[in-house]
Design goal:
The chain is α/β, with parallel strands linked by helices and 318 residues long. The chain contains twelve helices and ten strands. The strands form two sheets. The protein has an eight-stranded parallel β-barrel with strand order 3-4-5-6-7-8-9-10, surrounded by four helices. The longest helix is centred in the C-terminal third of the chain and has 17 residues, at 243-259. It is globular.
Length: 318
């Protein structure tokens, strides 16, 4: 049974587990049938939140996911996309300028095949654009009905303070959600900076990479499989394939085995029980991966297990 959580102080309800397209659809997953099988299974299990970005697969993630999502009633879906990263060599085809925002939303809507986005994320903070310019453009998109809510992704506590101050000053629609990276292994920024800001402003948190790009599944216990995400995405390998992390994940195996679950399910269940999490975004390149991960919804971790996990991961967490 899927659990639905309120996204911060908004009235929107999203599935506790959500499906994202980062480094998967249109990138590592190019077979339309595999994508259809994964997305359809997620939908049938009650997943209503689907997270995409224009930069994922250079627009292919939006097209591939949109081609499947259009078969489901639109009112049953919460679809998000993002903008910020360069989409071409053109100097204005990037960032959070008014020009790029107004042009990008129409391109994303066309690729996905929908009249509106439920959530539109500023994928990163833009040092080259005044926050007032960005917030006014997002406010206009809400008034135009092209987006219902907007949010930020990987913004710092100070940056969230800044955008909220500007929105309050000019009576503009405020962001209602932040999307930070978060897992057992990478949690300090959320815990020390993002969560306090989210609590202060009533922001929801929809976290990505809860399995740390597959590190927490145990697939890297004995090296790097050729068909793994880290083997095929060099920059992810650089940031994730670390011996202290690999050893910590090995030590998590007895805990998972004792509970009769996989380490992927353990990591996801841990994420979902952390304070303030509206949804955990997971990705999948195979149907079996989402079939395994979604079982985490039925897992409750007691205090003793949480303490055992902390003793293992705390020395190496970032």
């Amino acid at each position: 049974m899927m659990e639905y959580r309120r996204m911060g102080q908004s009235g929107l309800k999203i599935s506790a587990l959500s499906l994202g397209g980062w480094t998967t659809f249109g990138d590592l997953v190019t077979n339309p049938q595999i994508a259809r099988d994964i997305i359809t299974f997620a939908y049938e299990q009650g997943v209503n939140f689907y997270d995409i970005a224009d930069a994922y697969g250079a627009g292919e993630a939006e097209r591939m996911m949109g081609d499947v999502l259009k078969d489901f009633p639109r009112h049953t879906l919460v679809i998000s996309s993002k903008l910020y990263f360069p989409m071409s060599d053109e100097v204005n085809d990037r960032g959070l300028s008014r020009k790029h925002i107004m042009e990008s939303i129409d391109k994303s809507l066309k690729r996905i095949g929908t009249d509106y986005l439920d959530i539109y994320f500023c994928h990163r903070y833009d040092d080259n654009t005044p926050v007032e310019e960005t917030t006014r453009a997002m406010d206009d998109l809400v008034h135009q009905g092209k987006i219902l809510y907007w949010g930020t992704s990987e913004w710092s506590g100070d940056q969230l303070d800044e955008v909220m101050t500007v929105c309050e000053k000019y009576n503009l629609y405020k962001p209602v959600v932040e999307q930070p990276r978060f897992s057992m292994l990478r949690r300090k920024r959320l815990e020390n900076e993002v969560r306090p800001a989210a609590e202060k402003y009533g922001l929801g948190m929809v976290v990505f990479s809860p399995l740390q790009s597959g590190m927490l599944t145990g697939k890297y216990d004995n090296g790097m499989p050729e068909d793994s995400r880290l083997a095929n995405v060099e920059w992810l390998q650089k940031h994730n394939f670390k011996e202290p992390w690999i050893e910590a994940v090995r030590q998590l195996k007895p805990i998972a085995d004792g509970l009769g679950i996989t380490r992927a399910q353990l990591a996801m269940a841990w994420t979902l029980c952390q304070p303030g999490i509206s949804s955990a975004i997971t990705g999948a390149t195979k149907l079996s991966q989402i079939e395994d991960t979604i079982k985490a919804l039925d897992i409750q971790l007691d205090e003793d297990v949480l303490k055992q996990i902390d003793r293992i991961v705390s020395p190496v967490t970032e």
